[in-house]
Amino acid sequence: MPRLALGIDLGTSAVKVALVGEDGAAVAFERAPHPTRTDLPGQAEQDPADWLDALAAALGRLGQRHDLGAVGGIGLAGQLPTLVVLTGEEVAGPAVTWMDSRADAFAARLLGEAGRRAVYRQTGMRIDGRYLAPMYAYHFASVGRRAERVLSAKDWLYLRLTGQVATDPSTAAGYGAFSLAKGAFDPALLAPWGMDVGQLPPVRPSDDRSGRVTAEAARQLGLPVGVPVAVGAADSTAAALAVGALAEGTVAVIPGSSTAVLAAVRRPRLDRRARILVTPHALPGWWGYEADLLATGASVSWLARLVGRDERDLMALAAAVPPGAGGLRWAPYLAGGEQGVLWRDDVAGAVLGLTLRHGAAELARALVEGIAFEVRRTLEAIGRLVGPFDEVALANGHVGEGDGAVAEAVLAAVLARPVRAIAYESAAAVGAALLAGTTAVDPRHAGALVAAAGGHTRRLTPDPALAARYEGLYRDHVRTFPRAAALDGGKRP
């Protein structure tokens, strides 16, 4: 019987799982949602027990269609940064997700802009309150609490599956204290946050498979006992791996609750303006230039709920609206925090041009276009570091030409270049599976992964007239935002 690889992506709104065959092609996907608590201003917390329940549900449905006894290896990916604190073996309260903004002002006060740039020079991360060290300091150390163990969401799941504590370099970067030069957590970077290295997991390669499924985890999740488990990688780097973007000249655009834009390089250098994150990639010898547009998919979900539609219906409405959204312009900064390469803590979401004649369709189109404009702004900034790139690989796209593909079509037109869209329900889960070591495809060879994804791929070529129309709209967007979305009236330059 051919061996299968199982990839698990612990996402922001759902756990997604993928089975990958020996040829590297995705065989099946399942997902199960889990809730987020947002009762307080800025709060976005989750219960790790819900993650396990969701994983069990997704694997249960997957097991109805495929024999999980054929799984020969497991790999992990996860939302980042999301904080899990342990006292002994018990979770000390809810997990604080990357969407939680309560530590933002605290981190800004503690670091200041000069401190933030100094930390960036050491870590490649432009630290705000959504990294694990500031989260821990705000929610624990600053109120006199201390944890025995501080983990990311993925690392906690690895612990529950294997009984071992470990992280990988791409996930370690999200702790906010991982030295790029040392390839390790730096005690001096941890000290301002009231932390020490002993609280953190050891760092292993993403494809380290020394952990194995315990009997308890096997019983709870329906997996074979003793199956090797790869430590895995951050969701963005795992997704880029899956779509063949671990190659110079290719930029991955990875939509989800947020949208990550990620280019792979062999020899990284820091951005002079400290806007672009420099992160270890999913495999050694590679680095990523990354920028994240927070809450893009979450904004679409929010708008769908607001107008009483499901997301598919909302996108069908957007597809019927001509470019320009009837004069509406949308700044998609609904979650604060990172907005691609803007890094403005004084902006919020904004819609300009709204009149009584506009409805849900125009709002949806304007949001789709606003997100595409910000992706282009981000790609242009990354391009100034990496030089010209040959292709854009769009993860989690649509194979068909239906209404769900409107966002991909708009993106190709806004970028005015072909886009390779890969219709994985979770590219991160596929990338995690590729780290499990059971496929005949070497994940270091991007071309082989592009071929393996061929049945899930379509190529989008923008219409020249449409691209020209969007060129003008993009220039207008850049002139207008973020200034028009600033909470202080746009006084900042």
Characteristics:
single chain; 493 residues; alpha+beta; Nucleotidyltransferase, domain 5; 2 domains; 7-stranded mixed sheet; 5-stranded mixed sheet; 15 helices; 23 strands; 19% strand
Notes on the protein architecture:
This protein has 493 residues and is α+β, with helices and mostly antiparallel strands. The protein has 2 domains: 4-236, Nucleotidyltransferase, domain 5 (2-Layer Sandwich), CATH 3.30.420; 244-423 and 463-485, 2-Layer Sandwich (Nucleotidyltransferase, domain 5), CATH 3.30.420.40. 34% of the residues lie in helices and 19% in strands. The chain contains 15 helices and 23 strands. It has helices at 48-65, 104-123, 132-139, 153-162, 169-172, 187-190, 215-221, 235-242, 296-306, 311-319, 360-386, 406-415, 427-434, 446-452, 464-480, and strands at residues 4-10, 14-20, 26-33, 45-46, 71-78, 83-87, 90-91, 95-96, 149-152, 178-179, 184-185, 211-212, 228-229, 233-234, 250-254, 259-265, 277-280, 287-293, 329-331, 350-352, 391-394, 419-422, 457-460. The strands form 7 sheets. Strands 17-18-16-15-21-22-23 form a 7-stranded mixed beta sheet, with helices on both faces. Strands 3-2-1-5-14 form a 5-stranded mixed beta sheet. It has a 3-stranded antiparallel beta sheet with strand order 7-6-9. A hairpin with a 5-residue loop joins strand 2 and strand 3 (26-33). Helix 9 (296-306) runs antiparallel to helix 11, helix 10 packs across helix 11 (360-386) and helix 11 packs across helix 12. The protein is globular, with a radius of gyration of 21 Å. It starts with a strand and ends in a 13-residue tail after the last helix. Mean pLDDT is 93; it is low at 399-403.
